[in-house]
Give the backbone structure.
Amino acid sequence: MDDLLHYFAYGSNLHPERMRRRVPSAQPLGCAVLTGHVLRFHKQSRKDGSGKCDAHYTGRPQDRVYGAVYSLAAAEKAALDAIEGPGYEVAERVVIHAGTQRAVFLYRARPDAVRRGLRPYDWYHALVVSGARHHGLPEAYVERLAAVAANPDPDAGRAAKEHALLTAGA
Protein backbone atom coordinates (compact mmCIF):
# COMPACT_ATOMS: atom_id res chain seq x y z
CA MET A 1 0.00 0.00 0.00
CA ASP A 2 1.22 3.48 -0.85
CA ASP A 3 2.14 5.90 1.86
CA LEU A 4 -0.53 8.54 2.35
CA LEU A 5 0.02 12.29 2.19
CA HIS A 6 -2.26 15.01 3.50
CA TYR A 7 -3.13 17.80 1.09
CA PHE A 8 -4.88 21.07 1.94
CA ALA A 9 -7.17 22.17 -0.90
CA TYR A 10 -8.51 25.72 -0.85
CA GLY A 11 -9.21 26.53 -4.52
CA SER A 12 -10.83 24.59 -7.34
CA ASN A 13 -9.52 21.31 -5.88
CA LEU A 14 -12.13 21.77 -3.16
CA HIS A 15 -14.64 20.52 -5.72
CA PRO A 16 -14.92 16.76 -5.12
CA GLU A 17 -15.34 15.72 -8.75
CA ARG A 18 -12.39 17.84 -9.90
CA MET A 19 -10.22 16.31 -7.20
CA ARG A 20 -11.43 12.76 -7.92
CA ARG A 21 -10.54 13.14 -11.60
CA ARG A 22 -7.14 14.61 -10.84
CA VAL A 23 -6.17 12.25 -8.01
CA PRO A 24 -8.27 9.06 -7.92
CA SER A 25 -6.95 8.01 -4.49
CA ALA A 26 -7.95 11.32 -2.84
CA GLN A 27 -10.26 10.92 0.14
CA PRO A 28 -11.71 13.97 1.92
CA LEU A 29 -10.96 14.07 5.64
CA GLY A 30 -12.89 17.24 6.48
CA CYS A 31 -12.62 20.99 6.85
CA ALA A 32 -9.50 22.73 8.05
CA VAL A 33 -8.21 26.25 8.55
CA LEU A 34 -4.83 27.75 7.72
CA THR A 35 -4.05 30.77 9.89
CA GLY A 36 -1.80 33.67 8.92
CA HIS A 37 -2.93 33.55 5.28
CA VAL A 38 -5.66 35.11 3.12
CA LEU A 39 -7.23 33.78 -0.05
CA ARG A 40 -6.52 35.81 -3.15
CA PHE A 41 -7.28 35.22 -6.81
CA HIS A 42 -4.00 36.79 -7.89
CA LYS A 43 -2.07 33.82 -9.30
CA GLN A 44 -1.98 34.19 -13.08
CA SER A 45 -2.87 31.05 -14.98
CA ARG A 46 -0.09 30.02 -17.35
CA LYS A 47 -2.73 28.63 -19.74
CA ASP A 48 -5.33 31.37 -19.98
CA GLY A 49 -4.13 34.40 -17.98
CA SER A 50 -7.06 34.33 -15.54
CA GLY A 51 -6.83 34.60 -11.76
CA LYS A 52 -6.38 31.42 -9.72
CA CYS A 53 -6.44 30.98 -5.95
CA ASP A 54 -3.48 31.54 -3.69
CA ALA A 55 -3.11 31.11 0.07
CA HIS A 56 -1.18 34.35 0.48
CA TYR A 57 0.95 34.56 3.61
CA THR A 58 0.29 37.57 5.85
CA GLY A 59 1.59 36.36 9.20
CA ARG A 60 -1.45 37.88 10.91
CA PRO A 61 -3.06 35.25 13.19
CA GLN A 62 -6.54 36.65 12.54
CA ASP A 63 -6.24 35.92 8.79
CA ARG A 64 -7.61 32.57 7.71
CA VAL A 65 -7.96 30.41 4.65
CA TYR A 66 -10.52 27.63 4.97
CA GLY A 67 -10.31 24.47 2.95
CA ALA A 68 -10.43 20.70 3.06
CA VAL A 69 -7.82 18.12 3.91
CA TYR A 70 -7.54 15.16 1.56
CA SER A 71 -5.48 12.03 2.03
CA LEU A 72 -3.89 10.80 -1.18
CA ALA A 73 -1.46 8.15 -2.30
CA ALA A 74 2.09 9.49 -2.33
CA ALA A 75 2.54 7.94 -5.77
CA GLU A 76 -0.10 10.33 -7.19
CA LYS A 77 1.49 13.54 -5.90
CA ALA A 78 3.70 13.91 -8.98
CA ALA A 79 0.58 13.99 -11.18
CA LEU A 80 -0.97 16.72 -9.00
CA ASP A 81 2.31 18.67 -9.07
CA ALA A 82 2.23 18.56 -12.88
CA ILE A 83 -1.39 19.76 -12.99
CA GLU A 84 -0.71 22.64 -10.63
CA GLY A 85 2.27 23.54 -12.77
CA PRO A 86 5.21 25.88 -12.52
CA GLY A 87 3.22 28.88 -11.24
CA TYR A 88 2.78 27.18 -7.88
CA GLU A 89 5.30 25.86 -5.40
CA VAL A 90 4.70 23.14 -2.84
CA ALA A 91 4.71 24.34 0.75
CA GLU A 92 4.39 22.44 3.99
CA ARG A 93 2.13 23.99 6.58
CA VAL A 94 0.17 23.11 9.69
CA VAL A 95 -3.61 23.48 9.61
CA ILE A 96 -6.23 23.02 12.29
CA HIS A 97 -8.30 19.99 11.37
CA ALA A 98 -10.87 18.38 13.67
CA GLY A 99 -9.59 20.51 16.54
CA THR A 100 -5.98 19.37 16.24
CA GLN A 101 -2.91 20.41 14.30
CA ARG A 102 -2.18 18.45 11.11
CA ALA A 103 0.85 18.74 8.86
CA VAL A 104 -0.17 19.13 5.21
CA PHE A 105 1.23 20.17 1.89
CA LEU A 106 -0.40 22.80 -0.28
CA TYR A 107 0.34 24.86 -3.36
CA ARG A 108 1.23 28.54 -3.06
CA ALA A 109 1.66 30.98 -5.90
CA ARG A 110 5.24 31.70 -6.84
CA PRO A 111 5.97 35.43 -6.54
CA ASP A 112 6.69 35.68 -10.27
CA ALA A 113 3.18 34.32 -11.04
CA VAL A 114 1.32 36.92 -8.95
CA ARG A 115 -0.41 39.80 -10.73
CA ARG A 116 -2.66 42.56 -9.40
CA GLY A 117 -6.14 43.03 -10.78
CA LEU A 118 -6.77 39.48 -11.95
CA ARG A 119 -10.21 37.89 -11.89
CA PRO A 120 -11.07 34.22 -12.10
CA TYR A 121 -13.15 32.86 -14.94
CA ASP A 122 -16.74 32.17 -13.94
CA TRP A 123 -16.35 28.37 -14.15
CA TYR A 124 -13.25 28.40 -11.91
CA HIS A 125 -15.01 30.66 -9.42
CA ALA A 126 -18.06 28.34 -9.46
CA LEU A 127 -15.86 25.29 -8.74
CA VAL A 128 -14.29 27.05 -5.75
CA VAL A 129 -17.64 28.17 -4.31
CA SER A 130 -19.34 24.84 -4.97
CA GLY A 131 -16.46 22.96 -3.35
CA ALA A 132 -16.53 25.26 -0.33
CA ARG A 133 -20.25 24.58 0.10
CA HIS A 134 -19.77 20.85 -0.41
CA HIS A 135 -17.23 20.67 2.41
CA GLY A 136 -19.33 22.84 4.73
CA LEU A 137 -16.88 25.69 5.09
CA PRO A 138 -18.15 28.54 7.30
CA GLU A 139 -21.09 30.32 5.67
CA ALA A 140 -19.60 33.82 6.07
CA TYR A 141 -16.43 32.60 4.32
CA VAL A 142 -18.45 31.01 1.50
CA GLU A 143 -20.40 34.26 1.08
CA ARG A 144 -17.12 36.19 0.74
CA LEU A 145 -15.94 33.70 -1.89
CA ALA A 146 -19.26 33.98 -3.75
CA ALA A 147 -18.95 37.78 -3.82
CA VAL A 148 -15.65 37.69 -5.76
CA ALA A 149 -16.10 39.17 -9.24
CA ALA A 150 -15.50 36.74 -12.09
CA ASN A 151 -15.21 37.08 -15.87
CA PRO A 152 -16.79 34.87 -18.52
CA ASP A 153 -14.27 32.63 -20.24
CA PRO A 154 -13.83 33.69 -23.88
CA ASP A 155 -13.13 30.03 -24.78
CA ALA A 156 -16.69 28.63 -24.87
CA GLY A 157 -15.50 25.04 -25.27
CA ARG A 158 -13.27 25.17 -22.22
CA ALA A 159 -16.00 26.90 -20.24
CA ALA A 160 -18.57 24.21 -21.15
CA LYS A 161 -16.16 21.41 -20.23
CA GLU A 162 -15.31 22.99 -16.87
CA HIS A 163 -18.94 23.87 -16.06
CA ALA A 164 -19.83 20.21 -16.66
CA LEU A 165 -17.76 19.28 -13.60
CA LEU A 166 -20.28 21.12 -11.43
CA THR A 167 -22.95 18.49 -12.10
CA ALA A 168 -20.75 15.45 -12.82
CA GLY A 169 -20.80 12.74 -10.20
CA ALA A 170 -23.89 14.27 -8.58
Observations:
- The mean pLDDT is 96.
- The two ends are 29 Å apart (CA to CA).
- The helical segments are 16-22, 77-84, 122-134, 139-146, 156-164.
- The beta strands are 4-9, 27-35, 37-44, 51-57, 64-73, 88-97, 100-109.
